[in-house]
Each structure stands twice: as structure tokens, then as C-alpha cells.
Amino acid sequence: MKSNLKEKTVIMDADGMRRALSRIAHEIIEENQGIEDVVLVGIRTRGAPLAQRLAENIERIEGRKIPVGILDITLYRDDLTTIARQPLVGKTEIPFDVTGTKLILVDDVLYTGRTIRAALDGVIDLGRPKRVQLAVLIDRGHRELPIRADYVGKNVPTSRKEVIVVELKEIDGDERVIIAEKAN
């Protein structure tokens, strides 16, 4: 966890994350009446491993793999000039045509909606999906744009002073979701 944050509460452990992703996988299958034309696109950074985990859950349930891609939204952000003078641009890795798919964007935390707006711009630059849905591990509220998730692991009411930190073993070496506060 970043040193400028003070941990308050663990709101989801590894088992809770596993259960939430399993439930979301079932909901995706049910909502889309199977997995025909369903693709998952994880938003870099933590959305990517979450998308991969969802794909693995769906494969266990349906017995078939579904395509998974990774979208970097850095250049689509509306706050690009405020985040860094030289922002680090990651690689978008979507090895399939998104046109005509039921594309499910996957991210760790839904907050203002601006990340998802940027992701939608990025997806549309790649093609025209038949439908775009959103799956998030945590929805913390405080929307600034009219965006909502179709699949939510957990709704967590927060104050604007609080921060949700998702730690994934693939990136952070740990597996949990915490509420933290910015240290003064």
C-alpha cells in the first residue's frame, strides 16, 4: 500500500474476492444467455488480471474459453495533463475484433465514472461492439458521469476522503480490498 495512505478497514479478503468474481461470472453468463460473442476487456492495470480471472471462472462453468484483452486508457483520460508531465502509456492488447461482440469492460473500482468514459472512447476507436457492459469488483459511488456497472462484486459507500485500495497477487503480491485514508 502507498506510504501516504493509512489503512482503515479490510472490506474483502482473498475468499471474498474469489466468491465475488465467481458470482459475477455466473451473472455474465445468465445476462448474455450463454457466452456466444462475449469478450472481456480489462482496463489496465488491475482490471486486466480481474478480466483473466473472470474468463477462467466462465471457462470452468461453460467449458469454453472466451477472448480476453487489455485496454490502456492513458491517452483517453480527460485529466491527462494533470496526472503527469510524461504519463506512462501502457500497451493495449486486444487480439480480436471487437465489432459485433458483447464486450464487457472489467475494472477494479468504479468511482467517478471518468475511467470508464475513457475506456469507452478507447473501445470505440477499435470497432463497434454490439453491446458494452461493465463489471467492477467495487462500486464506491460518487459518480460525476451517468455511468453504472452491470455487474458489481461489492457496493461500498465511502466518503470522498477515503480511498479504496485493491491489491491483487499478480501485481501487489497480496489479495485484499481495503478502505484507507490519506495521511496528513
Structure description:
With 184 residues, the chain is of the alpha/beta class. The chain has a single domain (5-182), classed as Rossmann fold (3-Layer(aba) Sandwich), CATH 3.40.50.2020. Helix content is 30%, strand content 29%. Strands 3-2-4-5-6 form a 5-stranded parallel beta sheet. Strands 1-8-7 form a 3-stranded antiparallel beta sheet. Helix 4 (114-126) links the parallel strand 4 (102-110) and strand 5 (131-139). The longest helix has 18 residues, at 14-31. The radius of gyration is 16 Å and the shape is globular. It starts with a strand and ends with a strand.
What topology, given as strand order, has the largest sheet? 3-2-4-5-6
| Tally of helical segments | 5
Low-confidence stretches: none
**Main beta sheet, described?**
5 strands, parallel
Rg, nearest Å: 16 Å
CATH class: Alpha Beta
